[in-house]
Request: fold
Amino acid sequence: MWTLTTINMTASEIITTFELQVNDVTELSTAEELSILNRIYQRVCSYRPWEFLKTTASGTVLTDATGSYITTPSDFAFFSENAQYTDNSIAYQNNASPKVIFIIQNNTYIPYQVVNFSDRRQYYNKGNYAYLDLANGVIRFTKPPVTTSYEFDYIKVPATLTAGSTPVIPTRFQEILVYGMATENDILQRSPKATSYAPENQAKYQQCLDDLAYYNANLLLN
Reply:
């Protein structure tokens, strides 16, 4: 049985800890164990828009024959809310989701409302709107913006873990990956210990997920 560490672990160290948890699944190669780890890692990161997955994109608006656009970041998952106020007495002055592209002009951040792809024709040639064209990996503006510098927030897809890399999950919650791996079907079929402790490992996985969600909720100030 392993002991919880407060040291940020590499993928190799997480796998070693997992092997201690299930008495070393020798039928699985290191590559297979890493694949299982990444499956659990991406599942946890996809569970909700975690604060640790929020990041910012910035750059210059591009132009082609169709109009103005931004190339979506390679790790883009979806837009993050970025037009709210922490002060609850101030409401976002729009009846739409508070997700915008900020166009920067003379140190002023001008919000361009993000609208649904399917609604884009209703905003054709109207200023201050943009939409995600996911199939083509771009964010298009319904009318060219007043200037070309932009910024917006989004939730990223974390990079696939390699042996020496570390997860973006906060250190004290990384044990969730160990418990998650121990509950996978291909582990249960190979490890009698993992099978015997499956309910306990599943309960610990869920408790870690709940703890992480509570931590995340307390990072939000409104």
Remarks:
- The radius of gyration is 22 Å.
- DSSP finds six helices and nine strands in the chain.
